[in-house]
Design a protein that fits this description.
Elements: H1 8-30, H2 34-43, E1 56-62, H3 66-77, E2 84-90, H4 94-107, E3 111-115, H5 125-136, E4 141-146, E5 150-151, H6 156-161, E6 170-172, E7 175-177, H7 183-204, E8 216-219, H8 220-225, H9 241-247, E9 253-255, E10 263-265, H10 271-285, H11 292-319, H12 323-350, H13 361-381
Helix pairs in contact: 1-11, 1-12, 2-12, 10-13, 11-12
């Protein structure tokens, strides 16, 4: 019976590992697995959708991205949807996209374009571009995306529109990067999947708190009732996440997670681009209302504490040749890793991401919160005027 005799330190470590494992299980089995469950419910006919396909306006913000626009605009214009318009607003030098867009307008009578005047100051140019597009839009339902976003099928608009019920005012969609094989690409893909999984599953749980302007729909009347971006005009960012944060409710928000409703961006080639994007996101994330931000922090804290607890338990067991203790700690780590792999890979499959995580999962699981901390610290050290309108 000596195998079942634990000293005070071993008891504390075993209890800590067990409690933290249960906390992690709550996150993964009741929250983070909702995307797979939602798609299953859709296949089973348990989710109510709208049969009507109202006319809609697709607003595309681009910044001197002629090459990306030439790749993505044909997919937008080829959508299998009865009545829609595409409005391209270029934030940059007017002349770069002008020849291509003018040529395409002659071929497509539902395509229009304009630009943000180079003289515009004292407001976020991205917010101004979106506002110009919305004011030009003829229809009530707006679909927002960016010039480098490629819809994965010609059913993208139909799948978003099936969520346009009378009560719905916001529809959240998923965006990801095209698959790359470098270490950086895999790391970015995991972070994007995990971060998106968080806010999409919160929305599915009835607690929406942010969205992505790369794949987002809302009513024109909602935009004006919220007075556009007036609540955060002093910030360069916030045209998507802060707007959704202030306007979304459990009743007016729906989520579209069909793989054919996903848009993908070109794989990033430089870590600097990704780092700047994440640092900039911290400028708006600190303003989120609701408990979701703190709930996500609770998951991160319990995750790191769990890794400390189970590895310390294994080390303590080995040090004292108490193999039951060491085995219990190792078992706890294996149980969580298995649970996490099932949920994350299941979510990736549900969203149409082809990458799976096995050997890289434990490392990315540790790196993700450490990277988040790094971005928060770097944001704190930056001149806050960098994140304000210019």
């Amino acid at each position: 019976m000596e195998a079942f005799a634990f000293n005070a330190t071993e008891q504390s470590l075993l209890i800590a590992a067990g409690v933290l494992l249960m906390i992690q299980a709550v996150y993964y089995l009741t929250l983070y697995n909702r995307i797979s469950r939602h798609n299953r419910s859709v296949r089973q006919g348990k989710v109510h959708f709208c049969d009507e396909l109202p006319p809609l306006s697709v607003i595309v913000c681009t910044h001197n991205e002629t090459q990306n626009l030439q790749r993505c605009l044909p997919a937008l214009l080829a959508q299998d949807y009865p009545q829609f318009e595409v409005i391209v607003i270029n934030d940059g030098e007017k002349n770069e996209n002008e020849p291509y867009l003018s040529q395409q307008e002659k071929l497509h009578n539902n395509l229009y374009h304009s630009f943000v005047p180079d003289s515009s100051r004292y407001i976020s140019r991205k917010k101004l571009a979106i506002t110009l597009g919305i004011r030009a839009a003829r229809y009530e339902w707006l679909v927002l995306t960016e010039g480098n976003c490629l819809p994965q099928s010609d059913q993208w608009l139909r799948l978003l529109a099936r969520n346009f019920t009378p009560r719905t005012q916001i529809v959240l969609g998923y965006s990801s990067y095209e698959r790359g094989e470098s270490w950086l690409h895999k790391l970015i893909d995991f972070d994007n999947l995990f971060t998106s999984m968080r806010w999409l599953t919160f929305a599915l749980a009835g607690c929406p708190y942010m969205g992505s302007g790369r794949n987002l729909a809302y009513r024109k009347s909602l935009f004006f009732s919220q007075k556009g971006f007036s609540a955060h005009l002093d910030l360069q960012r916030g045209d998507d996440d802060l707007f959704v944060n202030q306007a979304a409710t459990p009743e007016n928000t729906r989520v579209e997670t069909d793989p054919d409703a996903v848009v993908r961006l070109p794989a990033l080639t430089h870590a600097h681009e990704w780092t700047e994007e994440k640092i900039n996101r911290n400028a708006t994330a600190k303003l989120y209302k609701g408990i979701q931000r703190w709930t996500n922090g609770g998951e991160t804290a319990s995750r790191l504490l769990f890794h400390i607890a189970w590895t310390a338990t294994v080390a303590m067991g080995i040090l004292h040749a108490h193999w039951l203790v060491a085995g219990s700690g190792l078992l706890a780590g294996i149980i969580r890793l298995t649970m996490q792999a099932i949920v994350i890979n299941g979510t990736a499959k549900a969203l149409g991401d082809k990458r799976t995580y096995s050997l890289t999962l434990p490392l990315f699981d540790l790196l993700q919160p450490l990277q988040s901390l790094n971005w928060k610290l770097r944001y704190q050290l930056r001149d806050k005027r960098e994140f304000l309108r210019k």
